[in-house]
Design a protein that fits this description.
about 200 residues; alpha/beta; Rossmann fold; 6-stranded parallel sheet; 8 helices; 6 strands
Length: about 200
């Protein structure tokens, strides 16, 4: 549903904005996604609200059709390991900054490790705003996890993108309305100002 409010204790969760990921052929400008995420991160930090920087350092080991297709394409295990090592390099302009919480994951969703939910609850967080790449993978899985842990979830619609337009659109139209509210960066910032004043 459309965005209604930002709780006084809201955290920003930025998913997989790292060198190798933003270099992928996304359907929207990765530069724009990064810029909007930085705007949100700066606003949260200025208000002493938690910022979580999530990095993908691999994938779950289970056999999939996609992993078989990559193997058939001739990528060696050493090349895969090298690219995985490069992938964890975060964008320097994003952070992390002192006080930020970092999560390194080897699955799609940041809440696979329950310590993230615990860290947020220790700070009385009731809502998370999620940005990043890719909409239908890391972002969606993180949003689902946050929802399942009982957090209110907001997706910054102009701060997420995917490698596939259909996947991106499906997540925004069909998945997120069931587990989250959605809004633009400007809408989130406006409500963030209001929640800060009201608090």
């Amino acid at each position: 549903m459309p965005l209604t409010e930002i709780d006084a204790h809201t955290a920003l969760v930025v998913v997989d904005l790292q060198d190798a990921v933003v270099a992928l052929p996304t359907v929207h400008s990765a530069k724009s996604i990064v810029e909007q995420s930085i705007r949100l991160a700066d606003a949260f930090r200025e208000r002493n609200l938690p910022v979580v920087i999530v990095t993908a350092a691999g994938v779950a080991p289970g056999r999939t059709e996609a992993s078989r297709a990559r193997a058939a394409g001739g990528q060696s295990s050493s090349a895969a390991a090298s690219s995985a090592a490069e992938a964890v390099t975060l964008l320097s302009e994003l952070g992390p900054r002192p006080g930020d919480h970092t999560v390194v994951k080897r699955v799609w969703g940041a809440f696979h490790d329950p310590t993230l939910a615990g860290w947020l609850r220790e700070r009385e967080v009731t809502q998370v705003v999620v940005t990043g790449i890719a909409t239908s993978m890391g972002v969606e899985s993180t949003a689902r996890g946050a929802h399942e842990y009982g957090f209110n979830v907001t997706i910054a619609t102009d701060a997420v993108t995917d490698l596939d337009q259909e996947d991106h659109d499906y997540a925004l139209r069909k998945v997120f309305p069931k587990i989250a509210e959605t809004g633009t960066t400007e809408e989130i910032l406006a409500l963030l100002d209001k929640s800060t004043i009201d608090a």
